[in-house]
Queue: 3 jobs
Job 1
Amino acid sequence: MTEYNLILENVNVTLDSFDLQDISIQIPKGQIVGFVGENGAGKTTTIKTILNLLTPVSGEIKIFGSHNLDQKPAIKEKIGVILDDSFFDENFKIYQIEKVMQHAYKNWDRAYFSELLKSHDIDKNKTFKECSKGMQAKLKIFLALAHHPQLLLLDEPTTGLDPVSRQEILDIFRDFMDDEKSILFSSHITSDLDKIADQIILIHKGAIQFIEDQSTLDENYALLKITPEIYAELNNFEFLAVLEQSHSVTCLTTQKELFRREFPEFEMTTPTIEDILLLFKKGVH
C-alpha cells in the first residue's frame, strides 16, 4: 500500500487576480515529484499554501498524516523548504545565517552543512549579498538539507545555476532520497525533471491538468506530427492535447503502441516534459 508524505484534496485558494482550483495531488514516500507549469500557473501559490503562508477557502492538506493547520514543531522539523525569495537579511554572513538555523531546527547538522559548503567552495565569512547568484542558489539548497528533513518543498531550486552545478545539485537530491523521503520539485527547467522525477504534475492557469508517472510517459505517451489532412481523418481518436499549425499538427497521445501498429508511417517520438508543457500551454486540451 502506497504511503504519502503530502496530500492535497480539492484545495481552492482565492487571490485578487488568481485562483487555485480544486488542487488534488499526492506525494508518495520514496519519490521525487516534478511540478511544472508556465510562470503564473500556480506552482509557488500551491507551495505557499502547503506552508500556511496562504489560506485556502476550501479543501484539505495533510503532511505526514496531520492537517497542515496543525503543524507542530515536530512536523516542521521534518520539512525543508526553498522559496524563490530569501527569508533572511542579505547582509548576514553565512555563519550568522547558520546560527539562526541552528536555533530553528533541533536536528541541524553543523558538520554536514560545513561539508556541503566546503565541497562547493562557499566561504562562511561572506555575506549572502556577496555571493554570486549561483552560490546563493546552492546556499538555499544546503540550508534546506542540513537538518535532514523527510519532505523537501522546492520552488525553482536550480534557477541561476550553470549546467554542471545543476547536475551536482541533482546528484545531492538523489543522495538525499530514501524510502521514507519525498521531494516536491517545482521548476521551469524541465530537462532537470526529465533526469530526476519519478512523477510529473502539470498545473495550468491554477488547475491541475496532468499527473503521470515518468515510466508511464516513457512507455505509453507519444507525439505525432502529421498533416492537417491526416488529422481530419483521425476524428475517432482522442488526444490529450493538440497543437495545430499552418502545415502540421502535433498530437499528444497515450496510445503509443496502437499508433505504432496501425500507422507505422507516422512520425512519432517520445515526448519530453517540455514538449508536454508547451502543448498544454499553446495547444487545445
Note: The first strand starts at residue 4 and ends at 14.
Job 2
Amino acid sequence: MSSLHDHGIFKFPQAGVINSSVDRRWRNLGAEVRAHPACEIPDICSTQMEITLALQGTPTGFVHRRGDGRFQSTAVRSGTLWFCPIGVQEDSIRITEALPEILHLYLPEHQFATVGELTSQPVASGDIAYLADVADEFVRQICVRVLQEMRHETAAGDLLVEQLSMALTLHLLSRYSGNSLAVTSADVNGALSPARRNRVIDYVEENLEADLTVAELAEVACLSRYHFARSFKAALGQSPSEYVANRRLLLGQQLLEDPTLSLAEIAFRCRFSSQAAFGRAFRRHTGMSPGDYRRHRN
C-alpha cells in the first residue's frame, strides 16, 4: 500500500531505503529502515503518525527539530524514540551526522478512526504529543517485532502487523494524548465458545489462499477486534496470526506434493510476497528448503 510510504518519500529525499514494507499487504501500518546522511530536511506537515526508532546510534550525533513551534535537540543513541503526529508542521530538522539505521513506522489516520469506533470516543493522531527521546519499552518492542516481520516475512505477517498496529495505536492514545481510553464492549471475556471457534476455523480453511484480516475473522466470530484476538488465543493457544501462518505453511507442504506447481505459484497461493520469502519461512518451519522437501516427498 504505497500511500503509507509517500510521507517518507517526501520527508526524507536524501535518505537511502534499506528495508521497506511497501511490497507487503499491510493495511494499517507502513515501515521502512533508512540510512540518513547529515543534512537539513525540508519543511513538511506530517500526513501519517510517525514513530521513529534509532536502530544504530552515533557517539556524537544529534537531531535538532522544531514542530509547531516546539524545539527539541536529541542525542541519537541506539533505542532513541521520536513521535510526530499527523498535522504537525515541522519547519526545521537538522541531522548533525550520518545515521546508518533508522526505523520509521507510519500509522494512517483511519487507524485512529478505528480506535475511536472501538472505544466510542472521538480520537485523532493529533491528540498525541510531539515528543523526542521517549522512554517507552513497549513501543520499542513493537517496533522491533515489526522490523523482524519486515526483514523475515512469515505466512501471516499481515495479520500480525494488523494486531501490532492496533496495540500500538491504543497505547499511544492512552499514554500520550491525555485521553483515558477504555474499550467498551458487550463481548464476553474468556475463550471463544466452541461454535464461534468452529466458525472461525472453517472460515480460515476456506480462505487460506486469500488475504485475511483480524477484522474479518472477528466479524465471523461476532466479536470486536480487541476481544477477538484475546479470546482466540485463550481458545487455541495461538494468536490469529500464528494460527493462520501455521495453516498456510501446512498448505505449502501439501501443494509441494503436486509436481505441476511451480515454487513461485505455491508462494503466491500461500500469500507470500515472493518465492524467496516463502523459502525462508518454509525452512524456518520445517528445517529444509521447499525444493528439498519436494524431492524428499516425491
Note: The chain has three domains: 3-176, 194-237, 243-297.
Job 3
Amino acid sequence: MKIIVEPDEGIGPVIDMIKKARKFIYANFYLIDNDQILSALKEKKRKKVDVRIIYDGRPYGEANLSQESDAIKNYGLNYKTAPKQFDSPGVFDHAKYMVSEKIAIIGTANATDASFSKNREYIYISKDRRIRKALKALFLADWNDVGTKRIRMPHVLVISPGSERIICTLIRRAKFIETEEMGDDPAVLDALKKRKRIKMILPSSVSSEDRQRLMELKKAGLRIRLMPVNKRYMHAKMIYGDRVFIGSENFSSTSLNKNREVGIVFDGFLSKRKVKRHFRKDWKISIKF
C-alpha cells in the first residue's frame, strides 16, 4: 500500500491505476468530470475492460447534474446515478473509490480537476485482495441497488451508513485532524471535547454554524487553525492517531449514518510519517481560529 498526497503528487498515480486494469474497473465518485480520468476509462472500455461508474447525480441537493452526466455520456461510458437509498433529500452517495482486479484506491478526492490541482487530498492505494474483493462486492451491490449486509468487510474499511462508532473511536485516540466540515454529529462533537488537545485544520470558508461549533471546541481545549482557501482548499477528511483514517466521511450525522461513504484505516510507519509531514506543513501556513 501507499499514500498519495494531493495536490503535491498530481493525477498520475490515479491514471496509472486505471491503465493497469485488464478485466474490470469500477469507479464510485460523488463528482466525476476530469477529462484525463474519463479518457483513461474510455481507453479501457475500448480494450474490452468492464468499465462502470456510479456517481451521485444530484450533489448539493440539485435535482440533477446534467453537465456531469453529459460529460460521462460523451465518453461513451457505462454509468448509473446513486441507488435509491442515497437518492432522498439531504442524503448522498458521497464515496470516492475505484477498484479493479489488481488495485483499489480509496480517498478524500473526487475525480475532478480541483482534487489534483488545488485541494489537500489523501488517496490510499492498495493491492490487498480482501480490500479489492470487498469494494467490488460493495460496488456491485450499489450498482444493482441491493443490500450490502452479506458483504464481509475487512476491519480496515470504514463504510457508511454506520461509521459513527469507529469514527468516534478514532477521534478518542487522535492527535490531529484535517476536515472540510465540522459537522453536527453529537457523538463526534462529544468525542472531540473529551479529547481536548487535538490539533485541527479546516478551510477558512467554513460555515457560520461550523464556526459556532468550533468556538465550543476551542473553549474545550482544542487547537484549531483555518487553511486560507487562496493557499490550498482543505477538502481532506483525515484523523491521525495510533492509526490513520482517510476517507469520504465528514463529521455530520448524515455522512456517518445515512450516506454512502468509504474510508480506510492504516498504521504503516512510512505512510503515517508521510501524512504527519504534510499535516505539519499545513499547520504552518494555516491561521489561528
Note: The chain has a mean pLDDT of 95.
